[in-house]
Amino acid sequence: MKYRNVGKWGIKVSEIALGAWTTYGDSVEDLSVIKKITQVAYEGGVNFFDNADVYALGKGEQVMGRVLADYPRHTLVMSSKVYWPMSDDVNDRGLSRKHIRESIDNSLRNLKTDYLDLYFAHRHDDTVPMEEIVTTFSGLVDSGKVTYWGTSEWPADKIAEAVAFANENAFHPPIVDQPQYSMLHRERVENEVMPVIDAAGMGLVVWSPLAMGMLTGKYDEGLPEGARLSENDGFRERILSNANRVKVKALQEIADGLNASRAQLALAWVLRTKSVSSAITGATRPEQIAETIGATGVNLNDDAVARIEAILGGQPE
User: What is the tally of structural domains in the chain?
Assistant: First the structure.
């Protein structure tokens, strides 16, 4: 496993992370399987474990907390997120100071830890002033409940605004953003987010780097029964197209030439840029996380990158 700093900051995360959305949330019910996936990840060098309070409405955090309690806390980088509604209560959502402060305490209890290494604002909240958002997250850093804070799926201009407000007023700025980024979902991140992130010295930890499994070849021949995309209309409509199938199939030759799987190729492509600190993956079987960990050994030379770009249609304008 290789490790990268999160932007210019001191904390180091594994290039491959294990996320809770799939593994600790709704998709895996057998605790023994979850423990084995976690063991394979940890022994393979994964130190970054990502979560969110909304994953299975707290169950994702509870299961992860139970499993990660078996490992020394100082060897883990644990994260969670806050924003989405957790109940029907009008204040149990968003980025108000009230909700953030209550949510961090709930997440810490669920995860069985005294602090989070990274705490994300899961979306931007247009109903709350930036002053309230930044000062609240900065206060969590001062309290010791959070080591660093970040954003997830925020518009680039809002990330820049948060950084500027924090720096101008001596508060802790966000150090990381978590956007969706893959070979099949790249334009917004590359054109809008990366320039802001790089200028601020922030890092990216990206989710869905395998495009919900599309880039693994799982959907080469269509939609298998029970597949995850069959349960998500929005992702299916955007990702599962004939054009994307053609691209994914064409990547096989490049992967073969590098002695890699297409999943490993897709992850290596995401990690080709130093703007990305970690690629967050999910797993429903131990074999899956073992395969994705292998992506850190794939060396994408300039020729391979050029061939990939030709298949994908070139870098976005």
Answer: 1
